[in-house]
């Protein structure tokens, strides 16, 4: 029954379809790539190293974000949210866990790569398991905070997906958001910047560039930066003056991050892609040897 729902303010039928399709394509592609990454790790014994475990966890977090996006795509095609207000809070909570864990594991991978290339220190399983557990526990904790009343999960402008409600702009929102920005954007971004910068200097010294050290941080900031800037803007100004469509484009852009992460950290990682290739084709690849800097 077409008359059963009203379109959200500022959106046409075509917009709903377009955003839904964007979410669907990003979700399916990310899901597919990250699923390959996850299954490869579980199936190929040689891949199961402490370092690769970080990449595996990143893929799990990103897969969770893809599922979140696919749920939103489904609702966008229906043109309304079928899971009620509780479902909305749960959807926001689940998405937030995925985002916080994903960004944290990007930083963990950067830290680990620094040790792989620069210090040549062996990473132990105990360290990896401890760090990974802490990342998941903290992500769940910080995502659960709005469920306890510090910040609120509510509908995004299209009313087909839920996130932290940035339109309130009250003190709870401002303090929670700025805490997240420091813990989950500035700190991870600084970690990534300093570690990849050290790796870059090491590559210059050995004249052996194994991957582009600028890309991981750039990708993270390109996908998440605009959305986070809008959330920070909402701390100080009425964000409702920003058009609903633009306020929808930004989270959809952020939800493409898992695609790039899979390509960068699984398929583009010399210690991980061999295992993915082995899983897909049955052919083994010899692990790369890293030159010490003189």
From TrEMBL:
<dbReference type="GO" id="GO:0004930">
    <property type="term" value="F:G protein-coupled receptor activity"/>
</dbReference>
<dbReference type="GO" id="GO:0007601">
    <property type="term" value="P:visual perception"/>
</dbReference>
<feature type="transmembrane region" description="Helical">
    <location>
        <begin position="16"/>
        <end position="42"/>
    </location>
</feature>
<dbReference type="Pfam" id="PF00001">
    <property type="entry name" value="7tm_1"/>
</dbReference>
<keyword id="KW-0681">Retinal protein</keyword>
<keyword id="KW-0844">Vision</keyword>
<feature type="domain" description="G-protein coupled receptors family 1 profile">
    <location>
        <begin position="33"/>
        <end position="265"/>
    </location>
</feature>
<comment type="function">
    <text>Receptor for all-trans- and 11-cis-retinal. Binds preferentially to the former and may catalyze the isomerization of the chromophore by a retinochrome-like mechanism.</text>
</comment>
<keyword id="KW-0472">Membrane</keyword>
<dbReference type="InterPro" id="IPR017452">
    <property type="entry name" value="GPCR_Rhodpsn_7TM"/>
</dbReference>
<protein>
    <recommendedName>
        <fullName>RPE-retinal G protein-coupled receptor</fullName>
    </recommendedName>
</protein>
<feature type="transmembrane region" description="Helical">
    <location>
        <begin position="54"/>
        <end position="77"/>
    </location>
</feature>
<dbReference type="InterPro" id="IPR001793">
    <property type="entry name" value="RPE_GPCR"/>
</dbReference>
<dbReference type="GO" id="GO:0016020">
    <property type="term" value="C:membrane"/>
</dbReference>
<keyword id="KW-0812">Transmembrane</keyword>
<feature type="transmembrane region" description="Helical">
    <location>
        <begin position="215"/>
        <end position="236"/>
    </location>
</feature>
<keyword id="KW-1015">Disulfide bond</keyword>
<dbReference type="GO" id="GO:0007602">
    <property type="term" value="P:phototransduction"/>
</dbReference>
<feature type="transmembrane region" description="Helical">
    <location>
        <begin position="123"/>
        <end position="153"/>
    </location>
</feature>
<keyword id="KW-0157">Chromophore</keyword>
<dbReference type="InterPro" id="IPR050125">
    <property type="entry name" value="GPCR_opsins"/>
</dbReference>
<keyword id="KW-1133">Transmembrane helix</keyword>
<keyword id="KW-0807">Transducer</keyword>
<keyword id="KW-0600">Photoreceptor protein</keyword>
<keyword id="KW-0675">Receptor</keyword>
<keyword id="KW-0716">Sensory transduction</keyword>
<dbReference type="InterPro" id="IPR000276">
    <property type="entry name" value="GPCR_Rhodpsn"/>
</dbReference>
<feature type="transmembrane region" description="Helical">
    <location>
        <begin position="89"/>
        <end position="111"/>
    </location>
</feature>
<feature type="transmembrane region" description="Helical">
    <location>
        <begin position="173"/>
        <end position="194"/>
    </location>
</feature>
<keyword id="KW-0297">G-protein coupled receptor</keyword>
